[in-house]
Amino acid sequence: MRKYICLFFSVTFLLSACKGGKTPDEVINHNRMTSLLTEVHIIDGILYTAPQNPDSLYKYGADKYLALFKKYHTDSVQFKKSLKYYATQPVELAAIYDKVRDNLKQKLDSLNKLQHNAIPKK
């Protein structure tokens, strides 16, 4: 799945031209998109590291994504349109993914700290 995501972004970057101007109204704003992408990548990590068969991956994965979109008051169509828009704005997309990477690192550090504190000391 990762190779398809990388391929999607690569093709989108290559085929899209940088456009200036106003952000369309249907595009998810920068901060909300950052939070949404952070959680999308967490769900991706959960789904693709757990040993499951393809049918359960689709069944449970779809539910997780639908719940996430509901949480952010959006849907998959608006998410895809927003992602397509940001792909035409490479500087903005890079800034969003810098924040996504920082958010994921912060969450990982927090989990590692909790795990380290849970280990009994002798």
Concise synopsis of the structure shown:
This protein has helices spanning 2-15, 30-49, 54-71, 76-87, 90-118.
Sketch the major β-sheet.
none
Number of DSSP E strands: 0
Average pLDDT over all residues: 83
| Assembly classification | single chain
Radius of gyration: 17 Å
SS content category: mainly alpha
Total number of helices: 5
Percent of residues in helices: over 70%
Shape type? globular
Q: Order of helices and strands, N to C?
A: HHHHH
Which stretches are poorly predicted, pLDDT < 50 over at least 5 residues? none
Distance between the termini: 43 Å
Strand proportion:
under 5%
Would you mind describing this structure in some detail?
The chain is mainly α. 76% of the residues lie in helices and 0% in strands. α2 packs across α5. It is globular and about 60 Å long. The model has no long low-confidence stretch (mean pLDDT 83).
Strands, helices and their partners?
Layout lengths: L1 H14 L14 H20 L4 H18 L4 H12 L2 H29 L4
Helix pairs in contact: 2-3, 2-5
List keywords for this structure.
mainly alpha, 122 residues, 0% strand, globular
